Amino acid sequence: CDQTELLRKKLEINVKGDVIPAPVLAFSSCGLPQKLVQNMETAGYVMPTPVQMQAIPAALDGQSLLVSADTGSGKTGSFLIPIISLCAKFRQNFSNPRKPLAVVLTPTRELCIQVEDQAKVLGKGLPFKTALVVGGDPIARQLYRVQQGVELIIGTPGRLIDLLTKQDIELDDVKIFGLDEVDCMLQRGFRDQVMQIFTALSQPQLLMYSATISQDVEKIASCMASDIIIVSIGKPNR
Ligand code: ADP
Ligand code: MG
Question: Motif Q motif located where (predicted)?
Answer without folding.
Answer: 25-53
